[in-house]
């Protein structure tokens, strides 16, 4: 069965510090991978998605970047965090084929920028 | 701009009540509509709807889609405290566009 891991679970970082959040998927090959952010009281906002190694699409201009160095690894980064980067970050994966776009979410990382 | 709107924003009920959650959408290139339940962390998948008028059921939960009027409803009958969560609606247009969710609180 497929599983998706994210770490760390929680993170408190000062403004201006770098960020690296990691997401890995097991039990599937060639998944589509996604990074979402959920701010308090708001819906999930898609930040990045990837259909393959090294292929990253950015959905909104922001202070963050993403990379996919391996098929089942997706990394979210920032060189200098802003207060507005605080939120709940979720990684998700989906299969490639057909119209099914059911996405499976990881446990999330709660980031607080102070 | 594609958008998904959920209502109500929050709902407080007692165990045993029946609730109806609403999701309306305006998108180009509609493919499907999905419902998720989010308790403390990761959203978990409930239903995917692609055709109008066909009800999907899972226990006390059911959902239906109206592609003409561009909305979906999620019904929960005989609610239990374990149903307390945020319920998210998302529309697939090659990517998922999420609504802000409905926060349901069920009290004993």
- Fraction of helical residues of chain A: under 10%
State the assembly state of the protein chains: heterodimer
Biggest interface goes to: A-B, 21 and 22 residues
Distance between the termini of chain A: 38 Å
The structural class of chain A is mainly beta
Order of helix and strand elements from N to C terminus of chain A? EEEEEEEEEEE
Which value, in Å, is the CA radius of gyration of chain A?
A: 14 Å
Helix proportion range of chain B? under 10%
Q: In whole angstroms, how far apart are the ends of chain B?
A: 41 Å
Low-pLDDT runs of 5+ residues of chain A are none
Reported for the largest beta sheet of chain A, the result is: 7 strands, mixed
| Poorly predicted runs of chain B | none
Order of helices and strands of chain B: EEEEEEEEEEE
Structural class of chain B: mainly beta
Q: What is the average of the pLDDT values of chain B? A: 93
What is the tally of helical segments of chain A? 0
Task: Estimate the strand proportion of chain B.
Answer: over 45%
How much of the sequence lies in strands of chain A comes to over 45%
Largest sheet of chain B: 6 strands, mixed
């Amino acid at each position: 069965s497929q599983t998706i891991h994210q770490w760390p679970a929680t993170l408190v970082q000062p403004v201006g510090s770098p960020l690296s959040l990691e997401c890995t998927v097991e039990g599937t090959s060639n998944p589509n991978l996604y990074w979402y952010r959920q701010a308090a009281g708001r819906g999930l906002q898609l930040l990045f998605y990837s259909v393959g190694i090294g292929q990253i699409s950015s959905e909104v201009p922001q202070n963050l970047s993403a990379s996919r160095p391996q098929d089942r690894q997706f990394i979210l980064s920032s060189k200098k965090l802003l207060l507005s980067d605080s939120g709940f970050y979720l990684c998700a994966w989906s299969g490639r084929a057909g119209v099914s776009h059911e996405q499976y979410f990881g446990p999330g990382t709660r980031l607080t920028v102070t | 701009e594609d958008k998904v709107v959920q209502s109500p924003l929050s709902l407080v009920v007692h165990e045993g009540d029946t609730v109806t959650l609403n999701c309306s959408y305006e998108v180009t290139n509609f493919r499907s509509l999905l419902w998720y339940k989010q308790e403390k962390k990761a959203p978990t998948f409930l239903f995917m709807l692609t055709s109008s008028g066909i009800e999907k059921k899972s226990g006390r939960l059911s959902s239906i889609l109206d592609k003409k009027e561009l909305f979906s409803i999620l019904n929960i009958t005989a609610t239990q405290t374990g149903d307390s969560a945020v319920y998210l609606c998302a529309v697939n247009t090659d990517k998922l566009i999420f609504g802000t969710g409905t926060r349901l609180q069920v009290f004993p």
